[in-house]
């Protein structure tokens, strides 16, 4: 009996050991299958993300090619050298302003003060430069003071938005009218101030090394914007805020300062656009930036920058600006009335925002 019990005990030990071995093997196999499945799933997600990342700019390039093809068939003047130079000149100021707008939207915010800042800066600059009203010609200091006005408006917008927690939509809408009010007061009741500096008259459309001067300025701004976004702390924190400001703050990153800085940069670029628009017109006007906002915001959205922030880029915005500029230029050459042009641009704006925001509707939490 004792021998039988020892045999039974030994068999049970071996059975338990075999069971444990099978269990470990099964867990390892299951773990391997699970890990493999996860890796396959992750690689599929990465492939889809890369495809989407390439598909968006490629679709814009295809749309540009289609527009160019259609308008070149409708009007033989479309592909002439003079018209292509016009397209570059027309796109220069929106490109400059759109770089700042892209940074703001990457935060998950929006800047509607563009036209007011352009008006205030343009009027300040021309009244401090050689103009038909007389007064002091401050030369380079006129640029510094005028851009200083833009900077003050941008910093004020950023501080109110960040410190007082007022939505950027409301803040910048108010600053639009603040800038417009400043421009109107500077304009006064006298005659239009005309630019008297012969060296600056028509400078924006003059050709240097095959391109208009204003487009060279736009290329410089685009290059600086890409550098800031990709290679500086401001750019990296901007993208991080757009993805999750809570995580940025918990990590101890300077969210407050970066948000104010981004609004300041955007206002400076709007101010630069206002000065160049004033040079282009040769006169000062409070409404020198009229219509620019409705090119810039659709261009940023059409380019693929998410309204919720965190995803997008300046090069995509460049494609969006060119798309809208070529569309407007082609409609003009095709003889389409200005009222219809506005309708087409408005329809594109609505369609672009719906398309861009549809996948983010839960994140944006838009209700009524």
TrEMBL record:
InterPro entries cross-referenced by the UniProt entry: ABC_transp_permease
Domain of life from the UniProt record: Bacteria
Pfam family, one: BPD_transp_2
Compartment list: Cell membrane
Keyword annotations of the record: Cell membrane, Membrane, Transmembrane, Transmembrane helix
Protein topology in the membrane: Multi-pass membrane protein
TM segment ranges: 57-75, 87-107, 112-128, 140-161, 168-187, 207-229, 260-281, 287-307, 314-333, 339-358
Stated name of the protein: ABC transporter permease
Organism per entry: Cryobacterium flavum
């Amino acid at each position: 009996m004792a021998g039988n019990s020892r045999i039974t005990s030994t068999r049970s030990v071996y059975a338990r050991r075999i069971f444990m071995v099978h269990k470990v093997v099964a867990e390892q196999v299951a773990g391997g299958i699970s890990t493999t499945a996860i890796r396959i799933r992750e690689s599929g997600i990465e492939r889809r993300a890369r495809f989407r990342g390439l598909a968006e700019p490629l679709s814009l390039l295809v749309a540009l090619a289609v527009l160019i093809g259609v308008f070149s068939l409708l009007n033989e003047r479309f592909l002439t050298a003079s018209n292509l130079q016009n397209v570059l000149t027309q796109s220069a100021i929106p490109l400059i302003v759109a770089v700042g707008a892209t940074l703001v939207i990457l935060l998950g915010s929006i800047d509607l003060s563009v036209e007011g800042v352009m008006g205030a800066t343009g009027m300040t600059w021309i009244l401090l430069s050689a103009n038909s009203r007389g007064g002091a010609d401050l030369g380079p200091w006129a640029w510094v003071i005028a851009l200083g006005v833009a900077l003050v408006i941008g910093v004020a917008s950023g501080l109110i938005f960040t410190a007082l927690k007022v939505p950027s939509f409301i803040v910048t809408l108010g600053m639009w009218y603040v800038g417009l009010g400043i421009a109107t007061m500077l304009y006064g009741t006298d005659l239009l101030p005309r630019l008297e500096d012969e060296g600056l008259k028509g400078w924006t459309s003059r050709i240097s090394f095959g391109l208009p001067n204003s487009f060279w300025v736009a290329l410089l701004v685009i290059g600086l914007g890409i550098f800031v976004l990709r290679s500086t702390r401001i750019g990296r924190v901007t993208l991080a805020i757009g993805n999750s400001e809570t995580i940025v703050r918990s990590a101890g990153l300077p969210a407050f300062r970066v948000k104010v800085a981004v609004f300041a940069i955007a206002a400076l670029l709007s101010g630069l656009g206002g000065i160049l628009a004033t040079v282009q017109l040769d006169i000062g006007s409070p409404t020198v930036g009229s219509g620019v906002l409705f090119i810039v915001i659709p261009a940023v959205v059409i380019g693929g920058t998410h309204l919720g922030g965190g995803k997008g880029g300046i090069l995509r915005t460049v494609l969006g600006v060119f798309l809208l500029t070529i569309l407007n230029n082609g409609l003009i050459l095709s003889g389409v009335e200005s009222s219809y042009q506005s309708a087409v641009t408005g329809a594109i704006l609505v369609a672009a925002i719906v398309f861009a925001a549809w996948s983010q509707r839960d994140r944006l939490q838009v209700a009524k």
